[in-house]
Amino acid sequence: MAENAQYDICVMGLGYIGLPTAAMLSTSGAMVLGVDTNASVVDTVGRGDIHIEEPGLKMIVHAAIGSGRLRTAVAAGPADVFIIAVPTPITPDKHADMACVVGAAEAIVPHLRAGNLVILESTSPPGTCADLVRPILEKSGLKVGESLYLAHCPERVLPGRILAELIANDRVIGGFDRASAERARAVYARFVDGEIFLTDTTTAEMVKIIENTYRDVNIALANETALICEKLGIDFWDVARYANRHPRVQLHHAGPGVGGHCISVDPWFLVERFPEDTPIIGLARQRNDAMPAHVVDKILEIVGDRPNPVIAALGLAYKGNVDDLRESPALEVVRLLREKNCEVRVHDPLVKHAPFEVLPLEACLRNADCAVILTAHDAYAQLDPAWAATLMCDRNVYDTHHLIDCNAWRGAGFNVLLHGSGKPRNIVNYKQQ
Ligand code: SAJ
Asked: How many CB atoms lie within 10 A of CB 190?
């Protein structure tokens, strides 16, 4: 296709959401231009390869590029529909950083023509489409609601299951007006099997943020319950298992904190705009952010007054079976342990690029005083305690995710500490049989 070709859809941002969405759309028959400001991403995807780990993604990107229906570029081009799928991180002082959304919206302005539809997919504070995106688009001289269509269609896929969920999940589409919503529905109907609900842009923005806030607050409740259980000398996992037999209770998992670019970020979009109205949301954030420090306190209790203890940190990614480090509580645990003069050796079976050295498992465990499972990777559930025992200096294991078979590890001579349970229990009691 020529340089000034007309595309059906131009996707701004080839990350975790933009890339799979662009590939899905081209697989559905659309001519898609995938745009990223990072030239190396554009090159990689342009070769039919991928720059992020996600099951099945490489195959569909490869096929989409091979079919000629997905092209990549560092700059936007003319299209009927523009989808903005760029990051909306938070600044260190907990404000939504909308620079990428602004940059993407401005980049498409020169290409806008009457009848175009612009869809914002990026998770954004309520009011973004109306107050931030609309005025930028109207710099084109076109008016939203008259000659331009504008909609918000937040993604809700789970990293690790992105492709399946892109197809299966229900979608909520907020239109600036009914015509915008209907046009956006037609775009997603190309590949979405789930139900599509139409509403206004601010409602759709709020729906997305409250989904992740709901989860954050519930995880904070689980973490708080775990701290109480530790003090009571009982087991959070027993409490959760039995409480969840109630038909209307679904206690979440306690853990070392909340990571990822979504759940630990989005609630701040509400707190910053409505500080007076969000004490619960703000406190939940603080509770979850404080969990890595709690994990570190527990590790220091285990290793006692040993000088410069060697800690084997198992897992760096923000959650199990992904390679994503963004906002990972494991990173914070490692940082805090080093601050406390621990020698921390890190292993992760999936992470390839980390801010510090990632060792093979054997080198990580060798001569360690304590192994701590920080990420719920399947590989750690299968770890052989007898093998670990031959490598480690002292047999201590701390499981922050309830992943390992505690009895098997105790059987191999380990002192096992399970996050959310009372004192380290070496004696097998009736619950563990
Ligand atoms: N976590 C817990 N306890 C739990 C569940 C999760 O401590 O009971 C922790 C995880 O270990 C991880 C973090 O929370 O550190 C987030 O993991 P996650 O798997 O719950 O969610 P994400 O961030 O990978 O994806 C979420 C999803 N949102 C919801 O489930 C409401 C996904 O559907 C969204 O598309 C995504 O955020 C997003 O992009 O917003």
From this structure: 15
Residues involved in catalysis: 208, 262
Q: Where are the beta strands (DSSP E) in 76-170?
A: 79-84, 117-120, 149-152
Name residues of the chain where pLDDT drops below 70. 1-5, 423-433
Percent of the chain with pLDDT over 90: 92
CATH number, domain 7-204: 3.40.50.720
Distance 422 CA to ligand 1 centre (A): 26
DSSP line for 171-217:
EEEEESSHHHHHHHHHHHTTT--S-EEEEEHHHHHHHHHHHHHHHHH
**Are the C-beta atoms of residues 92 and 127 closer than 8 Å to each other?**
no
Considering just the CA atoms, what is the radius of gyration of the chain in Å?
Answer: 24
Please provide residue 401's backbone torsions phi and psi, each rounded to the nearest 5 degrees: -125, 5
Ligand 1 atom nearest residue 255's Cα: 7
- Tell whether ligand 1 has an atom less than 6 A from the beta carbon of residue 259: yes
pLDDT value of position 58: 96
CB of 159 shorter than 6 A to ligand 1: yes
Measured CA to CA, the distance from residue 291 to residue 286 in angstroms comes to 9
Tokens linked to 122: 């990026």
Which part of the chain has CATH 3.40.50.720?
A: 7-204, 218-432
Best residue for ligand 1 mutational test, from 166, 215, 325 (most atoms within 8 Å of Cβ): 215
- CATH for 218-432 is 3.40.50.720
- Residue with CA nearest ligand 1 atom 29: 212
Residue 398 contacts residue 302 (beta carbons within 8 Å): yes
Q: Whose CA is nearest to atom 5 of ligand 1?
A: 253
pTM over 0.85: yes
C-alpha angle 358-57-85 in degrees, rounded to nearest 5 = 95
- For residue 176, give both structure tokens: 């600036």
Q: How far is the CA of 29 from the centre of ligand 1 (A)?
A: 32
